[in-house]
Every structure is written in structure tokens, then in C-alpha cells.
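Predict structure. Chain length: 231.
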Amino acid sequence: MMNVDKVVAIDGPSGSGKSSIAKAIAKELGFLYVDTGAMYRALGYYLDHKHMILTPNQELFHALRDLKFGYGESESVQVRVDGVDLTQKIREHKVSELASLVSQIKEVRDYLTKIQRELVLKKICVMEGRDIGTVVFPHAFCKIFLTASAKVRALRRFNQLKDMHKQDIPFEKILEDIELRDQRDINREESPLIKAHDAELLDTSDLNFLEVIETVKRIIVKKAQSQNLSI
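Prediction complete.
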């Protein structure tokens, strides 16, 4: 049997619930939770804050070579770039656009993919993103593709911002941004958003949080048993 990576790869479009589901599953099963979206957000925020042009260019490449990037330091400090904790900063709505821009740059994806693969050396991971099951860990023992309608995803994001007391962005704007992000992710040349051929498709549009959690757990257990993996 082919060697498999001890990774639960959860991919899907923006707002599909990847982060909340992956985080809950990792906590319940005792796995390491890796939010690759946070990594792209952090790099996008950092490079933009340094007034760099977010397209392929030599200044950006030099910055990546000299960068000190830390992930998973603690529950309260998720991501740190050059010594600066960006955990809270990257959750601002405008940072989604920056993440979308830098994620299209091959050198950025290569840089973060290397970090993501190193994290798995520590323990079993639940890793969520857009190309985990297709590019980062094509041999993950369990692959799940989460999705939901654009309107459902926009409503979730709207309510999330409301809970964070950042309700100054209209629902229509959030929906427009999500649809634009979908098109960028699907059509980009580097690691486009696609479902891996061996991934389980799970549409969460009509499911509540607990229903999704239970469904994902069943998929993980079934995949592990079929490959004689102890989790």
C-alpha cells in the first residue's frame, strides 16, 4: 500500500466553514490544527504593511528569503511574522483581499507549502486550505472538500463580523467579495481551487455546525480504518 501522510486535508472555498470545523475536529481528536488561510493572510498583511507590490517581483522574493515566520506558538498566538503577533490583525475583512492576491504568487505558495509540510513532522494534523489535498499533501489519508452556496457563505461571514462588532460592511459587499474570491481561486494558474479526485464532497449549506462535525468525524474514522491507521 502507498505510504500516506497522517493529515486530514480539508479544502474548500472561502466561508465554507473550513476553519471552525477543522479547529473543532483537531481539538476533539487531539490533532494539530493548521489554518493555512491564516498563513496567507499574515503574509498578505505583512507585505502590504511594508508597502510592497503584491505581484511577483524581486523585492518581494528577497523579503521571503529573510522572513521569520512562526505558526502555532500557542492557542492565543496563532501566527507571528518577523516577531510580530498578527493573530488578531489578519481577521479584518480587508485582509481577505490581500490573502487572495499573494496566494496567486508561486514563490509565496512554495514558501508556505514548505512550512506546512514541516508542521506534519510534529504530529497528526488537520490542515485546511484550498490546495491541501491536491498539492500540499496529495497522499493525505483523509481528504474532505467542504462547500456551500455563495449566499450561505456570505451570510456566515456577515454574522461572524457582527459577532466581532464589525458590522459596517453590507451583506451585498461580502457576497460580491466571496464570489470574486471564488473566481480568483478557481482560475489562478498556481494551485487552483479544485476538489481532489479522492476527496469526500460535503455540502454544508443545509447542515448546522454539530451535524457537520459528526459527518466529518465519521469520514475520518472510516478513512483511517480502511487504511489501518490508528488515530
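Summary: Strands lie at 5-11, 32-35, 69-71, 79-81, 84-85, 125-129, 140-147, 200-203.
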